[in-house]
Amino acid sequence: MFKKCDNKDMNRGRPKQFDEQQALEAAMQVFWEKGCEATSCEDLLQAMEINAGSMYATFGDKQTLYERAFSHYCSRASEQFLEKLNGPGTPLENIRSFVQRLSDIDQKGCMIANTLIEFGHEKSGVGKHARRVVGQVRKALEEKLAAAQAAGELAPGTCPSSLAAFIVNTMQGLSVSIRSGAGRDTIRDVVSTALRLLN
Questions:
Q1: pLDDT at 8
Q2: Is the pLDDT reported for residue 15 higher than 90?
């Protein structure tokens, strides 16, 4: 599925010095916007501002670069997620704050959801990584919802695992919707509906 650059591109000038993290960030942005299959080697080289020799020597082939870019995205997203989930508020307040922020989802959608669409069927590699991350998010939400229930913020009959799964599915659905051109009013309506379930 992954396409390699032409061999002739491998020798396009001598490898030059560059900021590896900056180049990885640039590659991540391209993959996030276009997906892996639709991203060409020229797209990557132009965004990263390096030559093919440098790209291959530092990041490997396109598949390896995508996996590294995806890991880079997940690390940042995880930090932001945990910061919101473990904020100064009560468990339910923190979850509601996290859900509220879904109204501001990037126009490119969520790279995790995008990766699941493209590679979720794969049993290993980046598809497996994406499924594992989603599982971790769902588990963290479930634990926080259970804490909210123990604190009396949720009704005793509420099922934390089902509600956590609902929030994750809402996140993924919003990502697909916004990449498909859904307007901000539609996104806000969906988020408002989800928030009503967290009263």
A1: 42
A2: no
